[in-house]
């Protein structure tokens, strides 16, 4: 099991609080970075030397939204290797299709119940912490 | 003469007599044959003549009774017309015979059919079909499908052009109506899909947050953590308010074209004064209204929503100690052009399209739901107008929109 570095792109304050709280309750060793929107996330990944292992992306955000962010990411030589998992309330078939077309690593629906959400994030962490990640030479 | 000689001569004479008789008989035979033939020819001729006049009559009947307009022309001059064509345009046959094709065509359409006619005359094509307009005697215009064919003599010289003219004004109108209906339906369908999208996406989000907050309330309550309890409680109330205004926005948005269509005279001067009174305008913002405004036709409530959304957006955008919001208008031939400008923070070029979409907000502010401009756009589309803006980041924004007169 490896320690994960996660980037959550989400504009809702409660959603980010909830995510951080659950991840740190699983293990203090996982690192969570928050970006309020795509624009901020791009600045973050370009500036920090260490790229996140996995990006969690909400679709509906002000300014640069999820789909637009994904497009920029997948067009970048370095950033396109970072797996992106969508974490959203939208199950609009067009959104799902478009995301997979652009090359996402997963599409997670936010459950209504807090306990279900907790379970979902736990499973997410368990899965990704046993994954191998691409390393840029 | 010897007897023998006489005998020979007599025999020769006899042969000659027989030969002449034979010739006479053949001649008589031939004459009779000739006579019979000529008699037969006379009969055939008579029959043919009968046939011809019958055919002419038939053709005349078709010409007279055709529901299609038929025109014979020669190099642009009208030679002959049928009743259907005369009735179509309202001219008498005599009047039409004094006219040429150009004088009953709409000048914009004429060059096109003239070019085709030249090709026909030069033998490049043998017939053509155009949809063109004709001017009636009462100066009204109809659309007609016109099939033109050349009638040539043996040497290929054109004797006439014959045109079959079918009134398609009604068809075109129906087609136009159908197109409009389909367009409308497509738009409605898209609206419905968008609406489902919005509900799934944006109304569910606050519910998730509320569920989370309630769980936290319980946790904090059990652990006796009053500060965090109060915190979560405040956030929960905020979420509730936000959700309420979202639902309110969706309802307002979807009621724009579902409410009964009202077309009344709206005095914009009064409407704007009323609107400005309704909106809270902070002291540091100066509101400028044009001195006069036109009276337009529309639904008071919708037009008020339009101005209200634009004006309150302008007010919200102001980030300077001295704010200015101004509403002006210009009158054009077929439409009014209104503008709402502010000296606020401006809108980056990148969000040009996005800002009119549902729930797309450039603000992180809690009170901005992203519904306002989509309502503005929908109302303007409802009145077949346009909306756009010019903006400079840091300096301000002007929204323009047009309403048909």
Q: C-alpha Rg of chain B, in Å?
A: 45 Å
State the order of secondary-structure elements of chain A, H for helix, E for strand. Answer: EHEHEHEHEH
Q: Give the fraction of residues assigned to helices of chain B.
A: 40-55%
Q: What's the architecture of chain A, going by CATH?
A: 3-Layer(aba) Sandwich
CATH class term of the largest domain in chain B = Alpha Beta
Structural class of chain A: alpha/beta
Q: What is the CATH class name of chain A?
A: Alpha Beta
What is the correct CATH architecture of the largest domain in chain B? 2-Layer Sandwich
CATH fold name of the largest domain in chain B:
Heat Shock Protein 90
Shape of chain A: globular
The CATH superfamily of chain A is known as Response regulator
* Termini Cα gap of chain A: 23 Å
CATH topology of chain A: Rossmann fold
Task: Report the CATH superfamily of the largest domain in chain B.
Answer: Histidine kinase-like ATPase, C-terminal domain
- What is the C-alpha radius of gyration of chain A, as a whole number of Å? 14 Å
What is the structure about, briefly put?
The complex is a heterodimer of chains A (137) and B (405). In chain A, 42% of the residues lie in helices and 17% in strands.
């Amino acid at each position: 099991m490896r320690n994960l570095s996660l980037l959550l792109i989400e504009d809702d304050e409660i959603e980010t609080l909830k995510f951080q709280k659950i991840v740190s309750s699983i293990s203090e060793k996982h690192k969570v970075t928050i970006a309020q929107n795509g624009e901020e996330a791009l600045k973050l990944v370009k500036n920090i030397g260490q790229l996140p292992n996995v990006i969690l992306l909400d679709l509906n955000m002000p300014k640069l939204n999820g789909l637009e962010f994904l497009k920029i990411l997948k067009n970048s030589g370095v950033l396109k290797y970072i797996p992106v998992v969508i974490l959203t309330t939208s199950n609009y078939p067009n959104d799902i299709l478009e995301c997979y077309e652009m090359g996402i690593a997963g599409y997670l629906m936010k459950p209504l119940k807090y306990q279900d959400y907790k379970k979902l994030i736990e499973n997410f962490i368990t899965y990704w912490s046993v994954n191998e990640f691409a390393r840029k030479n | 003469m010897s007897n023998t000689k006489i005998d020979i001569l007599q025999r020769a004479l006899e042969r000659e007599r027989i030969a002449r008789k034979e010739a006479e008989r053949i001649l008589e035979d031939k004459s009779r044959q000739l006579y019979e033939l000529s008699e037969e020819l006379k009969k055939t001729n008579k029959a043919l003549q009968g046939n011809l006049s019958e055919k002419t009559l038939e053709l005349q009947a078709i010409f007279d009774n055709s529901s299609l307009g038929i025109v014979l022309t020669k190099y642009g001059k009208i030679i002959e017309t049928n009743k259907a064509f005369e009735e179509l345009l309202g001219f008498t046959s005599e009047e039409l015979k004094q006219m040429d094709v150009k004088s009953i065509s709409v000048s914009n359409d004429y060059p096109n059919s003239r070019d085709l006619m030249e090709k026909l005359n030069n033998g490049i094509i043998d017939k053509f079909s155009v949809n063109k307009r004709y001017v009636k005697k009462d100066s009204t215009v109809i659309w007609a499908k016109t099939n033109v064919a050349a009638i040539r003599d043996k040497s290929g010289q054109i004797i006439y052009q014959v045109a079959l003219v079918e009134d398609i004004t009604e068809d075109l109108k129906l087609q136009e109506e159908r197109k409009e209906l389909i367009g409308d339906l497509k738009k409605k369908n898209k609206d419905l899909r968008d609406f489902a999208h919005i509900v799934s996406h944006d109304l569910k989000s606050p519910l998730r947050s509320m569920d989370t907050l309630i769980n936290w309330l319980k946790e904090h309550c059990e652990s006796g953590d009053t500060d965090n309890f109060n915190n979560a409680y405040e956030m929960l109330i905020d979420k509730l308010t936000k959700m309420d205004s979202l639902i309110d926005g969706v309802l307002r948005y979807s009621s724009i074209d579902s409410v009964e269509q009202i077309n009344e005279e709206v005095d914009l001067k009064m409407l704007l004064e009323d609107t400005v009174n309704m909106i809270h305008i902070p002291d540091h913002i100066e509101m400028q209204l044009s001195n006069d405004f036109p009276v337009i036709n529309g639904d008071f409530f919708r037009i008020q929503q339009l101005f209200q959304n634009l004006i309150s957006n302008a007010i919200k955008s102001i980030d300077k100690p001295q704010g200015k919001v101004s509403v002006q208008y210009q009158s054009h031939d077929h439409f009014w052009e209104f503008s709402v400008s502010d000296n606020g923070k401006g809108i980056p070029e990148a969000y040009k399209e996005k800002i009119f979409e549902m729930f797309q907000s450039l603000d992180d502010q809690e009170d901005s739901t992203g519904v306002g401009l989509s309502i503005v756009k929908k109302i303007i589309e409802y009145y077949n107008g346009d909306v756009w803006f010019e903006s400079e980041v840091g300096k301000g924004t002007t929204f323009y929109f047009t309403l048909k007169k």
